[in-house]
Amino acid sequence: MRSAIRVFDLTKYYGKLLAVDHINFEVRKGEIFGFLGPNGAGKTTTVRMLTGVSRPTEGTAEVMGFNIQRNSIQAKELMGIVPDISNVYTDLSGWDNLIFTGRLYDIQKSQREKRARELLELFGLHKRSHELADGYSKGMKRRLCIAMALMNSSSILFLDEPTTGLDVQSVLMIRDLIRKMNHDGLTIFLTTHNMDEANRLCDRIAIINKGKLVVIDTPEKLKQRIEKLNSIEVSFLERGKNLKKDLEELSAVTGVISQGDKYLLSTEDPSIVLQNVWQYASDNKLTIISVNTLGPSLEDVFVRFTGIEQEEIQKKIENRAGI
Q: Which stretches of the chain score pLDDT less than 50?
């Protein structure tokens, strides 16, 4: 059996609302499979059906060869689930959280203690394993949460937004752990809004939008599908009030997004835009600090296949920056 997950016409209605619309896909054993989509696209509903929390209206799914409806106990015994909200018991120590989880899975005492020691070592928590989890940092709690999901020696791990809200060091540590676990044979089903994270970690990516599965492929092949969409990233020493508007009016520029001290100019003809940017800088006595030609990003892919407009992305950027 090469498949970790097989989905057949999986469908979910909430009353008259069609949340997931007859989707079909396969997750191969040993891969990191990214599942992306805007809020309300059907990601969470799909995961709830795959993990046996919610019953499909139509269709079905197999997890590690077990039908999630007819053989839910066998399927759940092989999966670990890490929700986006921590399920760590903060009034227990790291050690006790793992031991309690082992009891829930009905793992024998000697085995669960051995497994707990292994996971605490792997996740860098062994030195503080007997401290209350309430005193752990967000990154430590997240690592403990993942460790708890692996107490049953899972064959497949469902990870929902594993690094959201964490500091850079914790993000890098968790990503390294994901790679290591996958290298050791664990299949990982990852849902994330972080395009960079999906690009760096995933072997293949599926994008769902309005309940429909719109595309599945490797990150690089997805980018190749929109290879005509390129961009020029430029930064000036001076920043005039009308700079963004002036850049938008340059020939061959199809859109401009302000990102910090840089401007991202979308185009299908980078050579013309480069010439125009240099000429604009010369005519207006501006100093260019840096200029780069960029190919399509996974974010561009996401925008293209979900129909999200660049204006919406700009609003998010401005909101984060407090503009």
A: 310-311, 313, 316-317, 320-323
